[in-house]
Amino acid sequence: MTTIDVGRRSLIKRATATGLLTVPALTALSACATGGGGGTQQVAEGRKSARNPLAVNESAGLDVVIFDGGFGEEYAKAAQAEYVKAFPKTDGKIKHSATQKIQAKLAPRFNGGTPPDLIDNSGAEQMDFGTLVSKDQLTDLRELLDAPSLDDPNKKVRDTLRSGVLEMGQFEGEEVWVLYYAYTIYGVWYSKSLLAKHGWEYPQTWDEMLKLCAEAKKQGIAGWTYPGKYPYYLPFSLYPFIAKIGGRETLDAIDNLEPNAWKHDAVKAAFEAYHELQAKGYILKGTPGLDHIQSQVAWNEGKALFIPNGSWVENETKKTTPKNFDMGVGAPSSLDSGDKLPYGTIWASGGEPFIVPKNAKNPRGGMELLRIMLGTKSTQNFIQQVSSLSSLNGGTEGLRLPPGLASAQELWKKAGDNVVNPRLQDWYVTLQKEKIGVAALGEMMAGRMSPKECMAKCQKFADETAKDSAVKKYRHK
């Protein structure tokens, strides 16, 4: 999901196909970045004021494209309505569209020099952020970040964001090219009511995890399931597990494409632990053939106790989740007392990446809509509609949160500083999803590859990417 992100999200975050970019699409996008054809003249700036700090043209139209995934599009429409209230002359001039085919729909527009003003660049077909950045196709969002926040003019937008969100939009230098709107808590998701029914508790150690899975198997319940067709969901719990065992530096080395990063003892221990789930028959039968929806439905039906996922899962499964399910999320279990980070360490980061194209007709309008979205009203609407936190640091005050989101927020608060944010999924999407996710982890968890072979395969893929001059490289600062 990076480049990004996640995926479906940023994510990642929740894909319906394994390919992120086709070769023809990437070629087209590169072509547009080196010149393209046509082009649209940008609208004139408006008058800058306390009410209009970004100098938006108050009568210009706005063109918005939203990824139609687990979060839907209604939250964006509601924010657009607030935009019209702020600038009444734009009434009837907001062009809104939603699609899962981000790359297919928008590459031609980038090629022609007529991209939208604001894009939710997410999903399985999101455009590659590395390419967009390296080809100078995006607007630097620092002017937005330095503008007064919607709710408190004494605070800059950047000062209202959750920790790490701003940095995720940086690739090198101080420029911020992407603003992640959602805030995703990753972990091991489960039904609190199902565990309580059997007198079980969430396992805080790996020995307890194996013991619980063994007991569940006797009751005809699998320990785990996951989207076998899209096994790049596995890192949602596996990566913070690796960091917990070996420290943050293990993930940093992986992100930096360092030689032998995948051969670290922490990686070996984590891979062997997850492989043991498969070897002992604790994975739901048929999981390698399930997509994300099918695995989540099976989990909702109580066929498996645990599933690695992000906090969008509550909204995405709301049609199949039983009323008494009482969804919860747990941090990766501790391997043993030698772990470098404490129990409660999680992966949490921005999701749902928004971009403002440099050649958009109304880029200031695109940034202003983001400023509105990061206000309390739009944030609370987002939280209530899609059961997810936003990147605004707050917004939950006075709201009754659904079980999964309440659990996620509690987990995040307890984690404190023990939050990691792997960047592989937004720096090197193809490497993360198709290679490490599908061709390595997917094969290991399907029982077709040993942990040792999986480690070697991951390192091979990382080394190939490191040596590929066509792939722009990024490093932790």
TrEMBL record:
* SUPFAM superfamilies cross-referenced by the UniProt entry: Periplasmic binding protein-like II
Pfam families for the chain: SBP_bac_8
Q: Does the keyword Hydrolase apply?
A: no
Per the record, the domain of life is Bacteria
Asked if Transport is a keyword of the record, the answer is yes
Stretch forming the signal peptide: 1-33
Q: Which InterPro entries match?
A: Bact_solute-bd_prot1, Chitin_NgcE, SBP, TAT_signal
Q: Where in the cell is it found?
A: Cell envelope
Quick one: where is this thing mainly located? other
Which keywords, in A-to-Z order, does the entry hold?
Signal, Transport
GO CC annotations? Answer: cell envelope
Family membership: Belongs to the bacterial solute-binding protein 1 family.
Spell out the protein name for this chain: Carbohydrate ABC transporter, N-acetylglucosamine/diacetylchitobiose-binding protein
Question: Native species of this protein?
Answer: Streptomyces buecherae
Q: Which gene encodes it?
A: ngcE
